Amino acid sequence: MKDILFSPIQIGTLEIPNRFVRSATNDYMADNDGCITRRQIELYRHLAEGGIGLIISGFLYVHPTGKASPGQTGIYSDDHIPGLRSLTDTVHKAGSIIAAQIVHGGRQARPRICGGEAIAPSAVEDTRTKVQPREMSRGEVESVIQWFVDASVRAQKAGFDAVQLHAAHGYLLSQFISPHTNRRDDDWGGTAEKRSRIIFEILRKIREAAVQDFPVFIKLNVKDFLPGGLDIHESLPLAVSLDKAGIDAIEISGGMVEAEGTPMAQTDILSPEREAYFRMFAEQIKPVIRCPLILVGGIRSVKVMEQLIQEGTADIVSMCRPFIREPDLVLQLQKGKDKGDCISCNKCFNPRGIRCPHVEK
Ligand SMILES: Cc1cc2nc3c(=O)[nH]c(=O)nc-3n(C[C@H](O)[C@H](O)[C@H](O)COP(=O)(O)O)c2cc1C
């Protein structure tokens, strides 16, 4: 049975040796200029040696105005390339594959961190953080598209095997697709198609700029968990259109920082029934797309992982917090362990560097 989790899968031009993805995880360990540090190289070495098929980097901001938290890594300047190259070399030497998650924080980039005003599709205040963003001009929308394209070219130069567009969790691309945060009535808002247009433009321009067949994935919000926010009736057709436009894989997630609780990283996942909390959305999306569906969110036990793949709910299982606690979890599962030890307490969020408080140092 477990063989299915250790069977390879093709994503675009990449062959992933097993069905495990490390979901993008901001580690809060880069230096003040967003450059990679020794601590990050060590962290990724452990993950890659731990047998994960595909590692997705933490949040790499495409422009200084898009930095959302301290210690995030930048990809907005060629000065970032040498550090990122050391990271990808380390991962490749240990036999794993790595994608760069490229992001702009939009209104979730706090002014004191992003060095000025937060920008967003519309000037809608974030009621949780009290950030009041400024509405982007049309020219700024074009600039953002270019920042994502330039970041993809840098990712390729730095040796990444793919990029992942972060269009989840309320960051800028997620703000564009959401009717809650995008109230524009120009070419970039109004209908669901116009709200998502920025993503299709980025995808098209990456295809033109990057070396042929460079895989592009997306982490997509299926539901914002906010009144008037994005929901499955709009995210499902969006997933279908992305698939048709040639996206190589879709990782589905949900929630925004403004939403109650932490819908993207739910707590107390202590029984199989609580696991895979976005499963109901995967069940609707998977049958109508051709590209692989990556499912994230509270996946913890071999039983649930196997079930998800066997029943055709997802092609790949993706985890974040379990790998903070046990970077070698995949090897342990292969040897017979039946679930990760992570208790989903969210105490791993640590602005001085992610760490699991339940692991002895
Ligand atoms: C410390 C921490 C950092 C995270 N950083 C990112 C990030 O940079 N990009 C992203 O898309 N999601 C990020 N997430 C969300 C995870 O990728 C994932 O979607 C979520 O934690 C649910 O998966 P899990 O139950 O396996 O942890 C982060 C989560 C945690 C706990």
Indicate the CATH class.
Answer: Alpha Beta
CATH architecture: Alpha-Beta Barrel
CATH topology: TIM Barrel
Largest sheet: 8 strands, parallel, barrel
- Bulk shape: globular
In terms of per-residue confidence, which ranges show pLDDT below 50 for 5 or more consecutive residues?
Answer: none
Estimated radius of gyration: 19 Å
* Beta-strand fraction estimate: 15-25%
What would you note in describing this structure?
- This protein has helices spanning 38-49, 81-93, 111-114, 138-157, 172-177, 192-209, 232-244, 279-285, 302-310, 321-325, 329-335, and strands spanning 9-11, 14-16, 20-22, 54-61, 73-74, 97-103, 119-120, 134-135, 162-167, 216-223, 249-254, 293-296, 316-319.
- Helix 1 runs parallel beside helix 2 (81-93).
- The protein is built from 11 helices and 13 strands.
- The two termini are 35 Å apart.
- The protein is 32% helix and 16% strand.
- The model has no long low-confidence stretch (mean pLDDT 97).
- The protein has an 8-stranded parallel β-barrel, surrounded by 6 helices.
- By secondary structure, it is α/β, with parallel strands linked by helices.
- It has one domain (2-335): TIM Barrel (Alpha-Beta Barrel).
- Residues 23-26, 58-59, 101, 166, 168-169, 219, 253, 264-265, 296-299, 319-322, 348-349, 354 line the site of flavin mononucleotide (FMN).
- Flavin mononucleotide binds next to strand 4 and helix 10.
